[in-house]
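Sample entry was shown:

___
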Amino acid sequence: MHTQAFTPRPANSAVITQVPALPTLPTLPGTAPDAPCRGLDDIFQEMQSCQREAPQPPTLTPELREACRVAVNEAYALNDISHPAVAELRRLSLARATRLCSAGMFVPQPILGPDELYPDLNPDSWDRPLFPEEMLRQAVDLTPAPAAARRLVAELDNPRSGPGRLAEIIDQHPHLSDLLLALANSQAYALPSPVQTTQRAVIFLGYRELRALILGLDGLIQFRGQDESEADPFIWRRALACGFASRMLAARLGLRGGRYVAAGLLHDAGRFIMRQTLPRHATQAARMALGSVTGLSECEREIMGVDGPTLGGRLLARWQMPEPLAELVALRNTPREAEDDRAASLLHVAALAARALDAGQPGALRLPTLDTQAWTRTGLRQHDLAETFMAASEELEGVSPLLSR
């Protein structure tokens, strides 16, 4: 880079009293060569003026602060806030909601009951309810197993395949490659240096981790492309958050993160199906859950005869995904029933942490009840939740828009 050399100021040039002569700085475009130097007082006054004129964040009034507290408390109505893990998540949710509210991102609102949310909706006008098996058949027709994932998994099983060939296949799907790079460069993986190309990501992640990420991300992209439901507006961001949180929590316990990130990304696969095959019923269940004292899964069973986790696990099995992955998704709300109960418990906690990110915001659902035995089974501590929550909150700001393109 070329730089202009300094030239000494002529001996007869005026200087500031008691200050040694300074070298002449290069003349800026549009500045007169002989313009007098401004004093420090002038510069400081101009800086203070700019600070006064800069837009200031809205003031968080005591009324708004109290409204945030009430909204977050309502989001945790199904949980015992005296439990250490719940208390920590609630504290984090309140801090996040308060920060977003003070930045003008939303105004807290009370959670409305079913009668207030859909007073004119006549249940007799709903679409004909489907049995779960029929719903699955329709879902499989609408959403076959992700093509990119199938192709990549086959390539990963080919002993002659290398990182270059895998990257070439991934790069044929720009949406997938963008999400893969964003997650690879996130705190969930903490790679030694940022990766700029898909091939570098493949090398750093390794085949086992890559397989899990591709299965989860490609499935998520495929569901997102067919979604037209108004139910639960946070569901897509929460899927990313759960994948991120699952990976981070597993790493903190020294566990291999592959299946956890895939299970986290697809933990709501059953609800994706419901949104596609029965969008009005899915919206109804989500709205009912806003005013329910039992939670979303119970509302889904009441309206559709099956809950999201169960349906999601069965779909992943139909897609011939690894059996442990399908079981994690199906039993995340009842982790003690899983063969690997610790893994299912970790996904249960990660899903709760992902839901906590949206607590207090308009339209967000109540958090499901924490299974306290599952929390104990994981071996996690409150500080693990805090660090994962804060990292997920930061990372999602950059990754979430990629899923909405």
In short: The CA atoms of residues 12 and 307 lie 87 Å apart. DSSP finds 20 helices and no strands in the chain. Residues 1-37, 50-57, 117-121 have pLDDT under 50 and may be disordered. Residues 148-225 form one domain.
